[in-house]
Amino acid sequence: MATAAQGLEGQVAVVTGGGRGIGAAISQRLAALGATVVLCGRTPGPLEATARAIRQAGGRCDAAECDVSRLPSVEALAQHVESSFGRLDVLVNNAGVAGVRVPLHQFPPEVWDEVMSTNLRGVYYTIRSLVPLMLRSGGGHIVNISSLAGKNALPNGACYAASKWGLNGLSYSVAEELRGQNIRVSVICPGSTLSEWGHTASKDSKKMLLPDDVAHAVAMIVTQAPQSFVSEILLRPTQKP
């Protein structure tokens, strides 16, 4: 594991949902720290655009299509990372969907399945598929991007909140499973963030968090000295939007 002074030279990082928004900011920050970043997602266009920006800035990266809600797709990603790079040091589970904002009794069952499959089941799939490679690499970091909705009530967003409460519980538990094997598991819970689906008409966008704020927190976690780890970060805007 690297310290802040060492950066991430020689390390390999996977960022899910890495093509846009928070995921793109995280991918760019990790590449700037020296990591080779594998950014993955379901849509090729944004992946390639972010990968191109990283390369133009002098970073190393690879864009890989992956749907985290499908186990075969995640297993193919793991095989690609192992065959291409032979190691994994950082896994950032950022891919997520919000669903629709309606009372739960009106919530469509098919959207419930999509939200849970992406936000929660997808993290299980990436950990199941990629942790063995991380263990063979000698350890590393898993950073799960959750939400303050996983800490507080979210009226008309119960499905999204439930997925993030579940992600928090998963993160705390897996951290205890893996800490003795040199893998540190952290969860970041951002508040209102200016992104594709984080902005609503009722919020002041000038007061919202930016994707770079979340990327800064990820960078802090993965460059920590080896004797400690941050298990959880609650990230709030300075002023309520």
Mean pLDDT: 94
CATH A-level architecture:
3-Layer(aba) Sandwich
Please compute the radius of gyration using only Cα atoms: 17 Å
Strand order of the largest sheet: 3-2-1-4-5-6-7
Tell me the number of helical segments per DSSP (H or I, 4 or more residues long): 6
Q: By CATH's scheme, which homologous superfamily applies?
A: NAD(P)-binding Rossmann-like Domain
In the CATH hierarchy, the third-tier topology is known as Rossmann fold
At the first level of CATH, the class is Alpha Beta
The percentage of residues in β strands lies in 15-25%
Helix % is: 40-55%
Determine the structural class based on helices, strands and strand pairing.
alpha/beta
Count of spatially separate domains: 1
Quick recap of the structure?
This protein is α/β, with parallel strands linked by helices and 241 residues long.
